[in-house]
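ARCHIVE CARD
Drawer: 12
Card no.: 0347
Subject: one protein chain, sequence and derived structure
Cross-reference: see card 0346
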Amino acid sequence: MNATSCYETLGVVRDATPEAITAAYQRCLGELRASLNGPNPPPPERLDALRAAYQTLGNPAARQAHDAALSPPTPAVSADEGERRPYPFAFTGEGGEYFRIWIVNLFLSLITFGIYSAWAKVRRETFFHRNLTLDNSAFSYHGNPIAILKGRAIAVVLLIALSAAQNAGPFAYGIAVLALLPVVPWLIVRAFRFRAHNTSYRGLRFSFHGTYRQALTAFVGYGLLAAISFGLLFPLFYRQQRTFVLDNLRYGSAQFHCTASNGQFYGIFLKPIGLALAGMFAIGFLTAAGGAPKLLLPLAFGVGTMALMLFLLPYIRVRTTNLVWNHVSLERMGFSSKLAVLPYFGLLAGNMVLLLLTLGLYWPWARVRLARYRASCMSLLSAEALDSFVAGESANAAAVGDEVSELMDIDIAL
């Protein structure tokens, strides 16, 4: 095996560090093990090639001898110091493949009265994770269906308790809601910890380090403020939720950080809502002045509400997604999100029409189309090779350890 094929086999650049080579070798072994039980298992020679490549590149003398016989290395794409190269995300799943997973999940969940839904979630999340790729490497999902089943059992018990309190009367229902408010932040923290801990990229897992107090402030405190302000503080509440999640998320030892400001969120929410209110006010003024039929105001209100549901909500979703991810950093790296309102709205509208025409059977294709579009608009920006960064974070994570090392035994997220 020559040196060029060694680098290609492990998927590393010519100037990769020993740590990056080790991380790439471990990643390739993990991918190899994951594919052994698949429909197209790799040939036995693949493992031999990986071992030979690692032995060659892992030995300084052997690597130097082989490098001497190679042509000069190709310059990196981002040759300038500090220039960030975009690494685009991609979603490679197909609607037909997900349909087979979805229809089996639906059938087994129905005949088991919902018990199988925990295993169904693992199959669904595994499909969407392994088909989401970055730099030709897929994400992985490691969720335990028993843990998910425990979380759903807790959710069912809470819903039954709330329903019983509601039937008992408004006073009992209010007491039950107040009693559950302190529990909500704990459930939220557990859900985010579970999801982060069971997601990995190139063999390195994510982790979530949010606390109960932070969740209580972000979800309950700011939620109550948004309610008593009649929605005026909702953009602030929305921002607190996003920053709570991202600022407490880590990949290895590298921490995410979101710098989007309150004013930027208010700018997104107030512009479309202001235009809608101005239009309704104008129609109301014309109606009151006798310049338009009196029936026009309720009609305009209905049309405005429909427009809010069908267009403004996708508009806010696209703008807030771009705002958040364009202001997120991961150590020395950044992100770029380029979702567009009209294509996103057209995608949702097309999916809705096809869902109605197929009586819901188009749902798997709708999910895949949406996942593919979102991934195609997302990139990671980095001035260094991702394998070097991952290798460094793997070493840091091994040295420092995960401070959230408790057993992730429930997943309350449905």
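Annotation on reverse: The longest helix spans residues 296-325. The chain has two domains: 3-68, 85-141+226-396.
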